[in-house]
Amino acid sequence: MTSLPPQPLSPLDGRYAAAVGSLADYLSEAGLNRARVEVEVEWIIALTDRSLFGSAPLSDEQKTELRRLYRDFGQTEIDWLSAKEAVTRHDVKAVEYLVRDRLSALGLDAIAELTHFACTSEDINSASYALTVKRAVDSVWLPKLHAVIEALGDLAREHRDAPMLSRTHGQPATPSTMGKEIAVFAWRLARVARQIEGGEYLAKFSGATGTWSAHLAAEPDVDWPELSRSFIEGLGVDFNVLTTQIESHDWQVELYDRVRHAGGILHNLATDVWTYISLGFFAQIPVAGATGSSTMPHKINPIRFENAEANLEISGGLFSTLASTLVTSRMQRDLTDSTTQRNIGVAFGHSLLALDNLQRGLTEISLSRDVLLADLDANWEVLAEAIQTVVRAEIAAGRSQITDPYALLKDLTRGRRVGAPELAEFVRGLDIGDAAKERLLALTPAGYAGLADELVDRLG
């Protein structure tokens, strides 16, 4: 058997590339290297701006030209770094050589030794990961999450007054509305989104073991912690002053746990909508040309929600591994984080793919209100809660001599289907006031949804 031509091993880079490719700008190896170049270049500019070690501030034109190295970072630089790393066997060292090469091309050899000055690789890496993950989350992942939240909000408002039978433990229960149930997911996701938006993205810039030892040896009169802080914050991320050789990754643990939490809520959404489809509550809108089954022409499978469910399980597992691995580093540094962090993009890719499927899936369903109403009309026994609660209120008000209203309704309804005529006859025979009796006689399962409609307004 002949070998295939080179193929992407991951479906994220093959079948699903169109849906998740935007993450590669940030979370690919090339995206990470571009950020590394950015950090190296900006550190040179920060040092020369302060005229350290006999340097002079670069002109605006020189800064612009130097910054082109990361602003115009492309295939030429990717290939250059690949060839150099094949020799250095060290990714960050290859980046350092690229920056030095660019300095030489610009006639700035005099400041070449300021490249990677007093830095350990993790100074560059921690800042680069903070930048790339922050940009990926802010520019790609969060907007897609908000698009799903917005789609849920639209559905909630559209179906706010559509009564439906609830199913607690899978059994008929007090009615709600479809809009309110959808609103619950939007509410939960918006809360986690706010937590993610408020998270920190931390970097360190303190040398080999986080002590600024080399910095002080080279120039003891500089406030290096303050210079490092202003430099890192100037990049647009947060500064961690107290670290080992590595930034401790706690911000990543927090972020990945929150994204995994959001994924758990989304997984719950996917399985619930799938179930509503199976019950006939939602009809799926046919897509022209699409095939549901290779043998059963009638089928429209809920593939958007099934795809989302599976990808959320994959991403959740990866985020869990990232969080549990990155929280620990032996002594001042071990290398387990390096390999683990190379999968950040894979975790976000599967999560983004799930979000994309959910966003699309939510536009491909139509509520079958007649099915909801028929389901309600077949389950009048759910009004037992209302009846026994009203009876208890009547007892408390001195208008009834019934001794155990819960047991009374339990005997009538538990494990039994009770229709409208039977309930009406039962209510008419109750020892309660006339006003209460009239309220109960007017009640239907479809009209027993409490404040469900109004609660949708809490979404804002």
Number of helices: 20
Radius of gyration: 31 Å
Q: Roughly what percent helix?
A: 55-70%
What's the CATH class of the largest domain, please? Answer: Mainly Alpha
Widest sheet: strand ordering: 1-2
Which percent band covers the strand fraction?
5-15%
| Helix-strand category | mainly alpha
Q: Which homologous superfamily in CATH is the superfamily of the largest domain?
A: Fumarase/aspartase (Central domain)
Main sheet summary? 2 strands, antiparallel
| Order of H and E elements | HHHHHHHEEHEHHEHEHHHEHHHHHH
CATH architectural category of the largest domain? Up-down Bundle
Distance between the termini: 61 Å
| Gross geometry | elongated
Please, how many domains?
Answer: 3
Average pLDDT, all residues: 92
Which ranges are low-confidence, i.e. pLDDT below 50, for 5 or more consecutive residues?
Answer: none
Report the CATH topology name of the largest domain. Answer: Fumarase C, Chain A, domain 2
* Strands, total number: 6
